[in-house]
Write a structure and sequence with these properties.
With 155 residues, the chain is mostly helical. The protein has helices spanning 6-27, 41-61, 74-108, 113-142. The longest helix has 35 residues, at 74-108. The relative contact order is 0.22.
């Protein structure tokens, strides 16, 4: 499986940003208010992936991958990579959605009271989405097998 490319994630961000800006621009009057905690749930997912990355990195570093009692099963690592790739994509799309919302909301804050009330929620959501992408990319990196050095038994 190839590592996630930053360029592909950036393309998703741009597509989602343009799409959400167009939709928000056309339908802002009928969209419910954005609470501050709207995007906060992604912080929990990012934190969970960060902790999972710490565990996997420690096990890979100590060569504790295998089917032993204290070992981390290789299938678990493969599932973590799949989770990381999916989370990076979700985080990129969500980042784009929040960027598109902010591109509309920030200039409107002076003329629309609702825009100034919605902007903090969009900033929190953008921060959570970026945190998810960062945690996902780090989890994916932690799942890489270490380079074999001469004289060291392989996993």
């Amino acid at each position: 499986m190839k590592p996630t490319r930053i360029g592909e994630l950036l393309v998703l961000v741009v597509i989602a940003a343009v799409s959400s800006w167009i939709l928000i621009r056309g339908f802002y009057g009928s969209i419910p208010p954005v609470p501050v905690y709207a995007g906060g749930s992604l912080y929990l997912v990012a934190a969970a992936e960060f902790v999972f990355a710490l565990v996997i990195r420690s096990r890979v570093k100590n060569r504790q991958i295998g089917s032993g009692l204290r070992d981390l099963h290789p299938i678990t690592v493969a599932r973590a990579v799949a989770l990381a790739k999916a989370s990076a994509l979700v985080g990129a799309v969500t980042s784009g959605i929040w960027v598109g919302a902010l591109v509309y909301l920030v200039p409107q804050r002076s003329s629309l009271h609702a825009a100034s009330a919605d902007a903090p929620g969009a900033w929190v959501g953008l921060g959570a989405a970026v945190a998810l992408v960062a945690a996902a990319l780090w989890l994916e990196r932690c799942c890489k097998a270490p380079e074999d050095t001469p004289g060291t038994p392989s996993l």
